[in-house]
Automatic annotation (TrEMBL):
<protein>
    <submittedName>
        <fullName>Predicted Zn-dependent peptidase</fullName>
    </submittedName>
</protein>
<dbReference type="GO" id="GO:0046872">
    <property type="term" value="F:metal ion binding"/>
</dbReference>
<dbReference type="InterPro" id="IPR011765">
    <property type="entry name" value="Pept_M16_N"/>
</dbReference>
<dbReference type="Pfam" id="PF00675">
    <property type="entry name" value="Peptidase_M16"/>
</dbReference>
<dbReference type="Pfam" id="PF05193">
    <property type="entry name" value="Peptidase_M16_C"/>
</dbReference>
<dbReference type="InterPro" id="IPR007863">
    <property type="entry name" value="Peptidase_M16_C"/>
</dbReference>
<dbReference type="InterPro" id="IPR011249">
    <property type="entry name" value="Metalloenz_LuxS/M16"/>
</dbReference>
<dbReference type="InterPro" id="IPR050361">
    <property type="entry name" value="MPP/UQCRC_Complex"/>
</dbReference>
<feature type="domain" description="Peptidase M16 N-terminal">
    <location>
        <begin position="65"/>
        <end position="177"/>
    </location>
</feature>
<feature type="domain" description="Peptidase M16 C-terminal">
    <location>
        <begin position="183"/>
        <end position="364"/>
    </location>
</feature>
Length: 428
């Protein structure tokens, strides 16, 4: 088996890669003398993938909302019991998550890495769905959905997405709705599993100080019955999403002491992945720090006027078919915060961004990026996320170094517009 090794001198990091006969791509980022080890087994499949052509079929089907998350729950169940107990016996921590675009299963341990790795690979590749265990899970997930419905922080975010998007499935809760999960059955689960959990659609990323060849041997043995089915071309269907927003103001009342708000800017610069998408993400994150970070003129003004507190922050999420920036926090007057932000953005567009601030934030971003490589969790999570976007975590630094003030000014004009923002408020 051929192992490809690439070195990244600026970061002082190495990347090992092997493509297995089963079709699985496996990556290892060695961290010499680190006691902790981390493995993440992921599929390029999330809550947005509700309409697709199942493997070995010709007609598209639409499955109930929330099925990717439901499937993640069910994979932990085996005929002999629950997989958590096996990891517990091995002294490791196991978890999983589903987001809009991927599902990941992971463990972290200090000892018995290869034994843990074997359990991870085997359980993800061995689904066990029955009518009874599917019905039982519905009650558990219904409780989870109701819990999120009562969470002010989740609700203010979820409503913000609904305000930005008309039809795109990102507007739907990852767990689905109480009504949608009632429609899930084992047949739907197997169709989703057999389509999206093909090894060609998955990636295994491992970080830590261990023998990569021995790890590959463990993975190969665990997958010995799996053979690559060749090129993967899953046909997924998403509704056509208009560029304009759906609803500009969304308000709700929940148990909060002070109003919460999310201001969302819908991205209209879409349709690409890889380095171009990564560049856009880095540009947007630098912009958000420049405009709304704790050292910005706007932050100081809002804080001094008593309009925000230290919960104020921002984030950008970007994919090929959707993207948005969200600025949020607590405020006694959320609409006044929005008004101040819009006026400030117009002023910055006229006067231009401050070059000194740009250089400082760029240096800070480079520093944080280098520091992030001390975290094995960060490496595995970020590497996987970028891999599914056809981008590389190891290109991040090169792209960041080449971003100019002019790039940021163009992104500012394109992204922070007067016609693409919404505000979601949760009032007491």
């Amino acid at each position: 088996m051929k192992i490809e090794v690439s070195t990244h001198d600026k970061l002082n990091e190495k990347l090992n890669f092997a493509k297995l006969d089963s079709g699985l791509n496996v990556f290892h980022i060695p961290k010499k003398d680190y006691v902790e080890k981390y493995a993440m087994f992921s599929t390029n499949y999330g809550s947005n993938d509700n309409k697709f052509i199942p493997v070995e079929e010709t007609e598209a089907i639409e499955v109930p909302e929330g099925i990717a998350h439901f499937l993640e729950h069910k994979l932990f169940e085996e005929p002999t019991g629950n997989i958590f107990a096996k990891f517990s016996e091995l002294g490791s921590y196991v978890n999983a998550f589903t987001n809009f675009n991927q599902t990941s299963y992971l463990f972290t341990c200090t000892d018995k890495f290869y034994e843990n790795l074997e359990v991870l690979v085997k359980f993800v590749q061995n689904p066990y769905f029955t009518d009874e265990n599917v019905e039982k899970e519905k009650g558990i997930i219904e409780q989870e959905i109701r819990m999120y419905d009562d969470s002010p922080n989740w609700k203010v975010f979820s409503n913000c997405l609904k305000g930005m998007y008309h039809y795109h499935p990102v507007r739907i809760d990852i767990a689905g709705t109480v009504e949608s999960i009632k429609k899930i059955n084992k047949e739907f689960l197997y169709k989703c599993y057999n389509t999206f959990y093909r090894l060609e659609n998955m990636v295994l990323v491992m970080v830590g100080d261990f023998d990569f060849e021995k790890a590959l041997e463990v993975v190969n043995n665990a997958l010995k019955s799996s053979k690559s089915k060749g090129d993967l071309n899953i046909k997924r269907f998403y509704p056509k999403e208009p560029k304009h927003i759906n609803e500009s103001i969304l308000e709700e009342r929940l148990q909060v002491s002070s109003p919460l708000f999310n201001i969302g800017f819908k991205d209209i610069d879409l349709g690409y992945d890889g380095d171009m998408l990564l560049k856009k993400e880095i540009e947007t994150n630098i912009l958000l720090d420049l405009l709304f970070g704790k050292s910005s003129e706007l932050y100081q003004k809002l804080y001094e006027d008593g309009l925000i507190n230290n919960t104020f922050g921002s984030q950008y999420i970007g994919h090929k078919d959707y993207g948005h920036s969200i600025i949020g926090g607590e405020s006694v007057e959320p609409k006044k915060v929005l008004e101040t932000i819009i006026k400030y953005l117009e002023k910055i567009k006229i006067n231009g961004l401050n070059e000194t601030d740009f250089i400082r934030i760029k240096k800070k971003s480079l520093g944080y990026h280098i520091m992030d490589f001390d975290s094995i969790e960060f490496i595995a999570n970020s590497f996987t996320s970028y891999y599914f976007k056809n981008a590389s975590l190891f290109e991040y630094m090169n792209i960041l170094e080449n971003i100019s003030l002019e790039d940021l000014q163009k992104r500012l004009e394109k992204h922070f517009r007067e016609d693409n923002f919404v505000i979601s408020i949760v009032n007491p």
